[in-house]
Amino acid sequence: MAQEDRPPNTTVLEEDGTALITRRIDMPTTVSAEAQAILATGKWWCPAAGSPEQLELIERARSLYPVEIEDKVIGGVPVRIIHPKTANSALKDRILVNLHGGGFREDSGSMLESIPIASLTGIPVVTIMYRMLPDHSFPAAVDDVEAVYTELLKTYEGHHMVMYGTSAGAILSAQSVVRFADVGLPAPAAIGFFTGVADYSRSGDSVSYFGLGGFPGGGGWDRTQDPFIEGYDPKDPRLSPIYADLKGFPPTLSVTGTRDALLSDTVNFHRALVVAGVDAQLLVYDALPHAFWYTIDVPESKEALELMARYFLQKLEG
Questions:
Q1: Under CATH, domain 47-317 is a member of which superfamily?
Q2: Predicted pLDDT of residue 1
Q3: Residues 6+ positions from 108 with CB-CB distance below 8 Å
Q4: Taking the complete model, does pTM exceed 0.90, yes or no?
């Protein structure tokens, strides 16, 4: 029986354990009215780079979170420095480093990830415009992060920096920490691993249910065939940090949602960090999809951004 012909709320198990499921998913009442309204449309919460939706979100971010933006080159790599209009004078020798999302193919989040955090913490954010596909695969982005980080270490101590990113940026943040350990650079005070992948050899459960916008979506993702990892063993710990020695990994905050395609990946990496004895925290938002905090003025997004900022401040004040 085809899935479209089956009645709602049925499950058929195939011989290998694959489940063919038809379900009615009611709108959750545990999220805000604003979140419910967006979920009802099926719109992506992380619009494509350069799209009118993204540009509108960036303008809304700048109105809510006053900052100044400076283009610069650090260590031979282009960056944007997001300066808060109101600086945190008590932490003037601290810096935040952002690695934007976009699947290593586009810049979907450098402004949306950096503007709110700079304003909320009062600390400048250096967002790295690392090299991407189709011209540059792994480890070009890690090379760029290392170059910028090495240059920043001439001004800031490692424990006075926090590195964070969403999606591809989350992946890159963990890969960069592994690289720093390999080359003898001090680790940052903490990282923000915001809905990412730490294992390119296996796919978790959530990608079968959800697309990047939550419902509708799903169908899986064979990441072993991703052009980003061409020529590398998917279990190489430099590529897949879950296979690295995680003991001594910096404190890590992970954030995801129950309709996030990378929910499983984020949770699995968090568990690996906890098993390794790392100071790790995990926030999972009910019903929300991948990178929901890009839609910045929904109550849950505001809360998530404030909690990210609070975590960074706690780690930088120590």
A1: Alpha/Beta hydrolase fold, catalytic domain (3.40.50.1820)
A2: 45
A3: 46, 47, 48, 49, 54, 100, 101, 102, 167, 291, 294
A4: yes
